[in-house]
Structures are given as structure tokens and as C-alpha cells.
User: Which sequence fits this backbone?
């Protein structure tokens, strides 16, 4: 009893001290709930459903707004192209594609450093700062008068947007258990489909401002959307939630409850342990991390191929500028609906792989139709629905499946940034797959999309077989008592490498 009281007093001392070093030591100390049984029995006065609803209201919607505007600012150049950007800036040959690809070089390179910075700057500071900067740069795109100016703005847009997507996914993973995460991830990720649909509607309205104050319609698209982003970033500074242990809208007991839920699900978070080059390399020793990058890469190519070139494809079917923008909206809306349906079923059945394969097959069907049919405009337009629905429904499941299977801050921060960063190399491939000389049939572009969908299916299958084998191996070793020498606390510190941990399949 004396030892227990001393341990409790020591733990309390750690909690009362706020210096970073002591806080780090606290997080390295045995967690109070390590051997205390089910978290629900330890917090009898906490209504879990009520706490989760509170998290749902505070965490996911604001991140959706953030990413909706981030994706809108990234792909609105495709809407601007329909309203004369290429002609006004005298873009010839592949210069438009080059302007698109410049975005991805810094976007890929700065993913992991940006997630490392998130551990030093609180999310409510880091994310609105990134948001303000990419809004400002988007607005400046509206004032460029040369190819060089467009290249410069696209490059810096890639720099400041690099930290947004993986940071948001990483933050969501620190609030939700794996079994309840997919609906939230898909709702967040579907901000891209909402951005696509909203972008088409907005562009159709803004395009009518052509000539106002001497500016072409495409310039107003950049200026207005950039200004809106800057204004919203200031609001989100006060709205974005930090990590569970840092927010003010949960009581002390609720914070402990949220930490206990995640502790039992994925183990110790290691929130305050420093992320060093050595710890980053340790993460990459796990082959599943590498495979995760290819899972995402395979669908990024058709995703960006659609996002950047769907307006041009729709216009090539004989539609005017305004009608093109309006016809680009319905496929995005259907993609959002399918994404939410598959996410709900995936969470309900606690399955991931099968709900990756089904929408991927839908996407594959759409691109095959686009590849082989060139004389039926209605069927070609319908195929765009399949391409968008399948691609954008499968992608959030892939990212959520991989991300939530990783335990602890380090493995999630590095793994998520790697998957998203490496995967976005596909953006470079996508923008050079759809060249103006190949219009309107875009046979090379559709063929490349089909090939990369096949790559994604292969990588997902390898990952599925790998985690299934790992689960069976741990079952067998556990039955033999191979891990009996490890304490419960030691196991929990191992995250998803914990021998008691079972991967979602």
C-alpha cells in the first residue's frame, strides 16, 4: 500500500509540473490504466457516446472546412483554365502541365518535416498558419502575368500545403479508436469531393465577373477564393482542436477517458517523445510502411487525373465554359455519397480490404469506358461518374486503414506523412499523362490511370495478406506463451508492434 501511495504521489507530481522535460517523463512513466481493466469500468461516470459526439462536433467539421479550401485552392487552376488562363498567359505545349507538376515537388518533400513541426507547434497554430499562407498565394496567382509567375506561385503553394493533409489525418487518428475512425476519415477526405463540386458551382458564378475592374474571370477565381481562405484561417485559429490532453473543452476526467480509450486500442501515444532522424528511420524498418505508400500512389494518379482534367474532358464533349463548370458538379456529389456509404459499412463490418476493392472496381470500369468509347457523349459523361465515385470512395479507406493500424505518435506521424508524401508523386505522373496533344481522346492518360489502379490493387492485396499473416503469427506465438515475459505496460508502449495488437484487415 505504501509503495502504491508513493507511486500515485509521484505520478501526481509529474502532472503538476508543466515543463517540457518533466511532461515528457510523465508520458514515459507507466500509464495509470495499464493494468486496470476495461476503460469503461474505470470511468463509470463518463458517457462515452456523449464524449464522442462532443469530439465529432469539435474536431472533424473544422478540419473538413480547412481541407475543402486547401483542395479547392489546389485544383481551381483547372476551372481557371476553362476561362482563358492558358490563352492570357500564352501557355503553349506542355507549359500548363509543368505549372501543375511544380506544385508536387515541394508537396512531396516537405510532408514528413511538416508533420514533425506539428509536434512542436500546436495544431490550432500550425494549421491556420499554413491555411493563411496558401490562401495568400492562391490570391497572388490571380495577379500573375507570366508563365514564370504562375510557376513561382504554384511552387510555394506546394510548400505551404504540404503539411495540411497528413497533419489532419494524424490529428484525427489521435482522437478516435480504429473501429470508429473510417466514417470520420471518409467524411474528412470527402472534403475533396465537396471542394470539386463547390469549385465548379463557384467558378460558374465567378466566371460571369469576366471584365469586372479589368480582370478576366479566371483571375477572379483565384482572388476571391484566396481571400475567403485567408479570412477563414483567422476563424479556424480559435476553432481547431489540439491533441486530447491539451484541449480546454473536455474536463480532466474526460481527457483521461479519451486517452484511456486510445491506450487500450493502440497503446501508448508517446506524444511528447522527440521525433529524431533515428526514430524516423526506425519506422521505415517495417516493410508495411513502404507498401502503404504504393497503396496510395496507385489511386493518386487517377484522382489527380480526374481533378485537374475533368473540366477539360467535359468541355471537349461540346459544352461551353459555364455549362462545363455546372456539369462537373454531379460526379463529385455522387462520389461523396458513395464514400460515406462504403465508410459506414466498413466501420459496421470492421472490414477494410473488401471496401477498397469494391469502389476500386467501379473506378476501373469508368476509366476503361473512357479509354475505349469515343463516340457516345452520354456514356463518356456517365463514365466520369464511375471514375470519380470509385476513386474518391476507395482513397479514404486506404489512408484510414493504413494510418489507424499504426500505433503511437511516432509511427503515425512518420507513416502518414510517408504514405501521403510518396503517394503524391502520383500527382506528377497524372499531370503529364493528360497532354493537350492527346485531347480529346486522352488514350495515354486513361491507360496510365488503369495501370496505376492495378498497382494499387496489388499493393493493397500485399498489405492485406501481410497483416493477416502477422495476426496469425502473433496468435500462434501467444498460444505458446512466447510473450509471457513482457508486462502489460511494456506491450502497450510498443504500439502496433505489441504482440497483443491485431491489425484491421
Assistant:
Amino acid at each position: 500500500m505504501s509503495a502504491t501511495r508513493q507511486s500515485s504521489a509521484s505520478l501526481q507530481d509529474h502532472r503538476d509540473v508543466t515543463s517540457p522535460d518533466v511532461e515528457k517523463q510523465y508520458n514515459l512513466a507507466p500509464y495509470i490504466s495499464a493494468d486496470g481493466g476495461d476503460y469503461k469500468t474505470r470511468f463509470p461516470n463518463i458517457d462515452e457516446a456523449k464524449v464522442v459526439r462532443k469530439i465529432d462536433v469539435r474536431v472533424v467539421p473544422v478540419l473538413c472546412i480547412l481541407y475543402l479550401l486547401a483542395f479547392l485552392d489546389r485544383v481551381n487552376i483547372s476551372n481557371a483554365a476553362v476561362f482563358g488562363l492558358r490563352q492570357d498567359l500564352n501557355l503553349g505545349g506542355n507549359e500548363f502541365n509543368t505549372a501543375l507538376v511544380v506544385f508536387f515537388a515541394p508537396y512531396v518533400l516537405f510532408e514528413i518535416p511538416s508533420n514533425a513541426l506539428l509536434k512542436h507547434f500546436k495544431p490550432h497554430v500550425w494549421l491556420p498558419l499554413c491555411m493563411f499562407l496558401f490562401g495568400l498565394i492562391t490570391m497572388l496567382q490571380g495577379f500573375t502575368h507570366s508563365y514564370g509567375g504562375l510557376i513561382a506561385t504554384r511552387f510555394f503553394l506546394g510548400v505551404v500545403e504540404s503539411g495540411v493533409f497528413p497533419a489532419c489525418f494524424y490529428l484525427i487518428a489521435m482522437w478516435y479508436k480504429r473501429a470508429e475512425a473510417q466514417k470520420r476519415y471518409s467524411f474528412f477526405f470527402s472534403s475533396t469531393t465537396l471542394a470539386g463540386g463547390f469549385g465548379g458551382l463557384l467558378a460558374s458564378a465567378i466566371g460571369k465577373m469576366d471584365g469586372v475592374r479589368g480582370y478576366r474571370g479566371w483571375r477572379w477565381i483565384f482572388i476571391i477564393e484566396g481571400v475567403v481562405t485567408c479570412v477563414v484561417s483567422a476563424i479556424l485559429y480559435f476553432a481547431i482542436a489540439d491533441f486530447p490532453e491539451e484541449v480546454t473543452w473536455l474536463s480532466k476526467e474526460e481527457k483521461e477517458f479519451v486517452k484511456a480509450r486510445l491506450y487500450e486500442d493502440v497503446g501508448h501515444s508517446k506524444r511528447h517523445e522527440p521525433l529524431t532522424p533515428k526514430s524516423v528511420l526506425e519506422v521505415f524498418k517495417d516493410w508495411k510502411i513502404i507498401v502503404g505508400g504504393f497503396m496510395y500512389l496507385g489511386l493518386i494518379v487517377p484522382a489527380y487525373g480526374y481533378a485537374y482534367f475533368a473540366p477539360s474532358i467535359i468541355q471537349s464533349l461540346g459544352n461551353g465554359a459555364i455549362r462545363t463548370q455546372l456539369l462537373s458538379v454531379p460526379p463529385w456529389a455522387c462520389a461523396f455519397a458513395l464514400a460515406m456509404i462504403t465508410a459506414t459499412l466498413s466501420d459496421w463490418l470492421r472490414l477494410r480490404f473488401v471496401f477498397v476493392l469494391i469502389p476500386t472496381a467501379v473506378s476501373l470500369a469508368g476509366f476503361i469506358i473512357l479509354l475505349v468509347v469515343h463516340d457516345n457523349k452520354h456514356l463518356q459523361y456517365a463514365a466520369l461518374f464511375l471514375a470519380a465515385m470509385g476513386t474518391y470512395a476507395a482513397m479514404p479507406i486506404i489512408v484510414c486503414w493504413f494510418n489507424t493500424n499504426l500505433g503511437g505518435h511516432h509511427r503515425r506521424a512518420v507513416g502518414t506523412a510517408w504514405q501521403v508524401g510518396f503517394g503524391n508523386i502520383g500527382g506528377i505522373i497524372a499531370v503529364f499523362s493528360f497532354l493537350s496533344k492527346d485531347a480529346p481522346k486522352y488514350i495515354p492518360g486513361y491507360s496510365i490511370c488503369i495501370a496505376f489502379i492495378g498497382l494499387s490493387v496489388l499493393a493493397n492485396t500485399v498489405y492485406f495478406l501481410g497483416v493477416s499473416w502477422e495476426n496469425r503469427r502473433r496468435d500462434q506465438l501467444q498460444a505458446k506463451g512466447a510473450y509471457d515475459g513482457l508486462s502489460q505496460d511494456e506491450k502497450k508502449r510498443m504500439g502496433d508492434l505489441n504482440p497483443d495488437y491485431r491489425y484491421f484487415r
User: Anything to note?
Assistant: The radius of gyration is 24 Å. Confidence is low (pLDDT under 50) at residues 1-36. The chain has 26 helices and no strands. The CA atoms of residues 397 and 431 lie 24 Å apart.
